[in-house]
Amino acid sequence: MKRLPKRQPLKEGEAYIYSDGKLYRVGLLNACRARLDPLWRKRRAIVSRLHDTRAEILSTPPSVNISAGALLIPAKY
Predict the structure, then answer these.
(1) Are 75 and 16 in contact (CB under 8 A)?
(2) 4 beta partners
């Protein structure tokens, strides 16, 4: 079994692996919270019922807010 590196305190601008196993970058870090911005995209379907057309795009999901004192695994890529 592959060992993961130790969890580290958050630093602004660094990338980490969040609990869902995906990569996030710390976009904001202050005394009370940290905002994790996703570094991945997901497929999103856009449907126009007026014209009966469908399109799929890749979009960035919303950011996640966590505690500023959280410890996460750093991402090395």
Answers:
(1) yes
(2) none
